[in-house]
Every structure is written in structure tokens, then in C-alpha cells.
Amino acid sequence: MTTINRATWTDDDGSGMTGTILNNARLQGDIYDKVDGALATLDGKDASQDTAIAANGPHSILSAQHPDTTPAALVAGDVLYVNATGKLVRLPKGADGSVLGLTAGLPGWTPAGQWVTVAIGSITMSAGTGTWTIGTGTFFYQYATIGKIAFLNIVITGSTTSAATAYVRLTLPAAIVPAAANANYLATIYPGATLTATCASLSNAAGGLLTILPNVAGSGTIPAVTNNLNVNVSLTYALP
After folding, report:
1. What is the pLDDT of residue 5?
2. Same structural domain for residues 30 and 136?
3. Phi and psi at residue 79, in whole multiples of 5°?
């Protein structure tokens, strides 16, 4: 504990008051000592406190110093959005002419009016009975969007159904799940060498499904064929 020297205050003005006064120079030095001690944790020699100071200084909005962000670097054209965990994240800029939209509640870029090819590994082929597979055939699946309109073209040749089935079915890319369920779209199917009038229906449930039925009335069966079922569907419909 610092002892502060005191000087005697004498009654030199006839007021009758006496006492002691603080030595101002010593008091000033003592105050400096106390302030310096209190701020020691912020001293430049304290590395951890230096880090704390830097954390509150200028830094990137997506740096680790923000608890509500996922660290990343920003470049021209990027967009910031809140992800499923409530953190700010970076959406890299899209290609020129692309449109910003929502897929499963999160923003993403979609080519505007350009055809997007869907790989067979990105969708599911199924059947009401047995299985439906591409076999040794070919697979062509494309879509395009303009605003709230989706265009879908599918051509499958030489596919296989393991058993007679009431329908065959494909999943839709998340970007083109329709606004509402629809039925009775025109489609064509060739089981073997025979052309059958068919229809297609769309589901707007999570995941979205395109169901191809064996005739316009939606009844009957698609026969079991090996590497010989051809499907052709072309649809236009509304997006959410």
C-alpha cells in the first residue's frame, strides 16, 4: 500500500482552521500507479489481451471474430445470406445471366432460360411394382426455368422394368418442384415396339415426383421389358 505524505496546514490567515493537506506531487504519482495497475491486462505485453482488443477492431464480417458467421472470404459479386443454422454465410456469385432463387428454403443461382442437364445419378427411378432401371439404354433429362415457369424434357430409351407395373416414376430436381400437384400431362411410352398413349402427373410434395401412367385414363399396366422401354415426356408448369 502506498503511503501518501501529508504537509501541515497552519493557520496563517487567522481563520482558526488547521490540519494537513495531501502532497499533490505524490498524490499524482500514486494515481498514475493505480491506473497503470488497473489497465495492466490491456498492456501491449499481454498477448491474450492484445487478441481481445484486435477482436473488437476492424475485421472481415465473415471472420471467426463474429459468433454469428461462418468464416469465409468475400469477393466481388458475392451475396450474404443466413443459413439453416442461423449464421451469415457467403453465396459465391453466379454466372452472368443467372437468377437468384430459393431451393429448399435457401438461396441459389439458376440459369435463366438455359437448359440444365440432370445426371442420372442425381435422380431416382422407381416403379409401382418391381424396379425400373436404365439398363443398357440412354438417359436424357433437362429443365429450364424462366421466372415462375419450368420446362422439362425427358427422353429415356432402352430402359428395363423387372415386372408389369401400374406406373414408372422419376424424382424432380429440387429447383423445379411444381407449385401444385397436376395430372394428365401428355407423355409417350414405348414398351417394346408398341406405342402406348400415356399421361404424366406431378407431385409437389417434398422431393417432387413425376409419375408416368400407362394410358391417358391412368389405368392399365406397363409390361415387363428388358432394355426396351422408351419414355418421352415434355412438360411446362408453374413453380412456387
Report:
1. 52
2. no
3. -125, 140
Q: What is the pTM of this model?
A: 0.57
Does 224 lie in the same domain as 131?
yes
Task: With a cut of 50, list the residues of the chain below it in pLDDT.
Answer: 4, 22-23, 45, 49-50, 53
Give alpha helix (H) positions in the chain.
Answer: 24-38, 47-55
Query: Which residue stretches of 172-233 are H helix?
Result: none
Give me the CATH number covering residue 136: 2.60.40
Query: What 3-state class would DSSP assign to 39?
Result: coil
- pLDDT value for 49: 47
Distances (CA, A) of 12 to 15, 19, 22, 51, 192: 8, 12, 18, 57, 127
pLDDT recorded at residue 30? 58
Burial 202-238 (b: 16+ CB within 10 A, else e): bbbeeebbbbbbbeeebeebbbbbeebbbbbbebebe
Last residue of a domain, one of 58, 77, 106: 58
The enclosing H or E element of 99 equals strand 98-103
What CA–CA distance (Å, rounded) separates 65 from 54?
Answer: 9
C-alpha dist (Å) from residue 2 to 8, 24, 31, 96, 127: 19, 14, 10, 72, 90
Can you give the residue range of the structural domain that contains 39?
A: 24-58
* Residue 239, all three cell numbers: 413453380
CA dist list (Å): 69 to 1, 4, 85, 124:
47, 52, 10, 35
